[in-house]
Amino acid sequence: MANITLKDIAHSYTGASDNPDDYALKKLNLTWRDGGAYALLGPSGCGKTTLLNIISGLLVPTKGDVRFNDENVTKLPTEQRNIAQIFQFPVIYDTMTVFENLAFPLKNRGRTKEEIEPRVIELAKMLDLDKNLHTKAQHLTADAKQKISLGRGLIRQSVNAILFDEPLTVIDPQLKWELRSQLKYLHKQFGFTMIYVTHDQTEALTFADEVIVMYEGAIVQVGTPEDLFERPEHTFVGYFIGSPGMNIASCALKGDRIVVEGAEIELDYTYPDQKSTDKVKVGIRPEHLNLTGPDTPGGFPVTITKIDDIGRYKIVRVTLNNKDFNVVMHELSANAGDKASLHFDTSHTHIYVNDHLISGAAK
Ligand code: ADP
Ligand code: MG
């Protein structure tokens, strides 16, 4: 097992180029600690699979090095990296039985029958495949086939890392939850480094101790689920994480004050002046806005346009001047069409310049 380091990695599918737009993966540096449970989260096309394939050796990066501990493995083929990779769709042998499929990675490495059998049975039980051990894979459902793929990835106990590339895409929603908890359990039990790629925030946040958020070929934040929620370092993270995501609005910034849609807010921190060409935005999560009755001092006048009651709380859509904001309310007596006052919790109000979070100075 090893720490995996990506040093100045970048990848362009059209070969080396000076134009950053040619790069599916922009320059990045990252270390995956041995034994960590990571999620790689981002929308389709942001470069997740490209990054995973560079780690496993299916792809040689245009620039930079991949290191396992101190060894440079950038040009080493997949077989020599001791990495297990599980893909979006099942990769199995249809004409082999479940048992033979699971046993294959071990048999291939010359393990004895005595070593293989108990391991296959143990894993088949965990994945609920034990009733079908001697059925040919071709007779099974897509769910079961993908479980075999997962099993094949998990069967070896001495791998440098296990990479999962959106492995639950074809799995029935009910089973998804179950398999995700199984993976988490397996991580705790065996301590493999696991990198789990997904575009689903719930999957990422429930699986990982640390989440890497990617956007347009770049890493925009690395943090715990709490970091991503409390202090999104990029507007994309604010918008992508949370349900609904963070409210983001253009604003004018002057020292410790912003003006957003005509509303002037005094902030907890003071910020340096920005260039006139910079785009300044304020970000605040729906959980950190509050509504009171119309004309409350300290609040800004808004109109309620929509209320979604989702059980434990309501998501209230309000319009401040011309801009919509979502507000999470646990109690609300107003109706759509009513006037209200909007309050910002300034301890959770973030300022972004060109979409990147900036820090203010204490006043
Ligand atoms: P993700 O896994 O996050 O959906 P990918 O890593 O598959 O993203 O793709 C990142 C970008 O690289 C996309 O714009 C995609 O079209 C492009 N891309 C992926 N694979 C290839 C390829 N083999 N050849 C050319 N472009 C590719
Ligand atoms: Mg992908």
Q: What's this, in brief?
A:
The chain is built from 8 helices and 24 strands. It has helices spanning 48-56, 98-107, 113-126, 142-154, 173-190, 201-207, 225-230, 235-240, and strands at 4-11, 25-32, 37-41, 63-68, 71-72, 83-86, 161-165, 194-198, 210-215, 218-223, 247-250, 252-254, 257-260, 263-266, 269-270, 280-284, 289-292, 300-309, 314-320, 323-329, 339-344, 350-353, 356-358, 361-362.
Q: Mean pLDDT, rounded to whole units?
A: 95
CATH class of the largest domain: Alpha Beta
Range of helix content:
10-25%
Strand percentage: 25-35%
Major sheet: arrangement of strands: 6-7-8-3-9-10
Query: How many strand units?
Result: 24
Uncertain stretches of 5 or more adjacent residues? none
Bound molecules: adenosine-5'-diphosphate, magnesium ion
Shape: globular
Number of helical elements: 8
- Computed CA radius of gyration, to the nearest angstrom: 25 Å
Multimer state: single chain
Q: What's the N-to-C terminus distance? A: 48 Å
For the record, what is the CATH homologous superfamily label of the largest domain? Answer: P-loop containing nucleotide triphosphate hydrolases
- What structural class is derived from the secondary structure elements? alpha+beta
How many domains comprise the coordinates? 2
